[in-house]
Amino acid sequence: MQNQSVVSEFILLGLSQNPTVEKTLFVVFLVIYLATVGGNMMIVVTIVYSPALLSSPMYFFLVFLSLLDACTSSVVTPKTTMDFFYERKTISFECCMTQLFALHFFTGVEVIILTAMAYDRYVAICKPLRYPSIMNRRLCGTLVGVAWAGGFLHSVIQIIFTLELPFCGPNFIDHFICDLFPLLKLACTDTHIFVLLVFANSGSICIIIFSLLLVSYGVILFSLRAHSSEGRCKALSTCGSHITVVVLFFVPCILIYAQPVSAFSFEKNALIFTTILTPLFNPIVYTFRNKEMKNAIRKMWKRFIVVSDQY
Asked: Under CATH, domain 9-310 is a member of which superfamily?
């Protein structure tokens, strides 16, 4: 790192320079963060302590999706929230690289988990008789392992790109976190090749996977014509939740990484949505639109109340 850069820290310009606005944003972001972590961990605990749910591949993947959402929010929101108290918002070079690595690691894993969940729904609806044999625990574990390995590889590639850039000043980042395009704007070199590499590693992956997911759900919806009315409604409810999460996740990512670096105005708002708001929406979508989850949460709270009364 020291050979590549003479910059030891970056100064984040944040979301606003107005103290009144920053105080309001502090309250909003703090509430969002607490609700995000609380909601996602509630889903994790509910599924883990509900054997009937945990044995289902869909809920097995949902545990990891909720953990990833809590981790993604924790990478961004606490630092951003605390920065509202400081006029000079700084982050060291090492912490900047760590935040960049962690953000792309967790989101990279989430891309593959969402793809695995889509495949699970495809097998459940289009090949129901073979579902237990195809979506066995071994395959589910393998898919989760591939997700973690894929996310790690993706983030390592991003870090290698960034560490190849020389930063000799200025060190002002017009953003609230360290991410690729804001850092590219500060590099003391021609970054056109790096922009293409970022697009190839992030933008094209988002576009291709998002397109494949849309096609797969198109096939699923087409195959529902042969199902009964009750089965169709249940399948549509489950698929609807997942499609909502996929759209909320991929559309901002495409806006961020599948555009020229000069089109920077969209990135800050899109990154707020995908790193702070989307992790909050996921537990809402999967809780309020899912009868099994709501019943499991009620049972868990009843057990908790009974245990509390005993003490």
From this structure: Rhodopsin 7-helix transmembrane proteins (1.20.1070.10)
